[in-house]
Amino acid sequence: MAAKRKRIPRYSKVQINGHEYYKTDIEDADGKRVILYGKTREEVYDKEMAALEQIDNATFRRKSPTVAEYCEKWLLMQSVHIRATTLIDYTSKVRRHIIKELGEKRMADVTLDDIQVALVPVSKKSASVYKSVVILYKSIFRAAKESHVIDTNPTIYLEAKGGGVPQEERQALTDEQVERLLDAIRGLPPYVFVMIGLYAGLRREEILALQWDSVYLDTDAPYLTVRRAWHTEHNRPVILTELKTKAAERNIPLPDRLAECLKEAKKKSTSDYVIANQDGEPLSYTQFKRLWQYIVTRTAKPRMARKLVDGKYVKYMLYPKLGEKARNNGHVVYSLDFDVTPHMLRHTYITNLIHASVDPKTVQYLAGHESSKITMDIYAKVKYNKPEQLAGVLSGAFAEWDGGEYEAAQ
């Protein structure tokens, strides 16, 4: 806050309706003259100090930057010491969830209530997104307080706990679902993407950044190496060579089925990228959504659709039935009665590694997990997710308590 202005008090006496008062004058935040009255010097002095404090507060708030201005400055400061991928994530969330909601307000005017109201739309997203946005709010306003941009930090009592929609437990595709999915899209644009996800376990951003110079098909043991990541800015693809974590850089051996798929794809490719658009460039975000739509349209699941009526698109509910052909496209058959997401492909890969008794450290490496806790949490849920498997483990663990040995211990 600005320091109180000091001056030599100038008090004079005036007569008002037969009564004697002391008076003084000050300038307000707009430069206008304000007269203060009091029955004693002390009363006028107290009024003067209170008025000056209000004026200083108003001046300070007026000079305070807007939330949008300070957020952009904060992002610029972060760019010096965080990874490019992290900066992209921060920028997207700050602009979408902070600047969009509070951008025009002055930093010094923002209250906890303002922030909590701004977080209402975020609370409808996943718990992880909600938590990360709250952390960004706290980081930005803490930095503003430390830099004396604001006098008080409105986020000190802001909590991320319990906010957002709890994430559903990730499910892996069964072997039968994998085959049905591949049969449904064989020869279609998403086929190679799906194969890489299922049999190499790459993240979406790793698959879409994969180039042929990172795929080694002519060795005795074919493999690919992960060293780039795909992101988008304003719907345009950005390929980064700096990955989110060091653990993301890894070499993945290729099962025969995937190696053969990639050999066929490479023969037809005219691009440096394994997954490319018609111009040989990496996909934009819109182009990826269009790619994935080949899978969505083959799913027998009620959903909102659009049709052209009198030159305008009208929304309506579509209720596909398994085995039927789409009314407006005879090439599309509703052959999938289960949901598929890009991350489900990766989770299926990791699950299959665990069921194949691959040790946790190898699973951690192949999955590109930075923390062993992430791997072990998945491992624990997958390895013994069937009662009969757990029962077998428990029987072995407590075998020494069977029969006579148990009685002897008693």
Automatic annotation (TrEMBL):
Keywords: DNA integration, DNA recombination, DNA-binding. GO terms for molecular function: DNA binding. PROSITE patterns: CB, TYR_RECOMBINASE. Residues 168-395 form the Tyr recombinase domain. GO terms for biological process: DNA integration; DNA recombination. Pfam families: Phage_int_SAM_3, Phage_integrase. InterPro entries: CB, DNA_brk_join_enz, Integrase-like_cat_sf, Integrase_catalytic, Integrase_recombinase_N, Integrase_SAM-like_N, Phage_Integrase. SUPFAM superfamilies: DNA breaking-rejoining enzymes. The keyword Transferase does not apply. Residues 65-145 form the Core-binding (CB) domain. The keyword DNA-binding applies. CDD domains: INT_ICEBs1_C_like. Signal peptide: none annotated. It comes from the Bacteria. Site-specific tyrosine recombinase, which acts by catalyzing the cutting and rejoining of the recombining DNA molecules. Belongs to the 'phage' integrase family. This is Site-specific integrase. It comes from Merdimmobilis hominis.
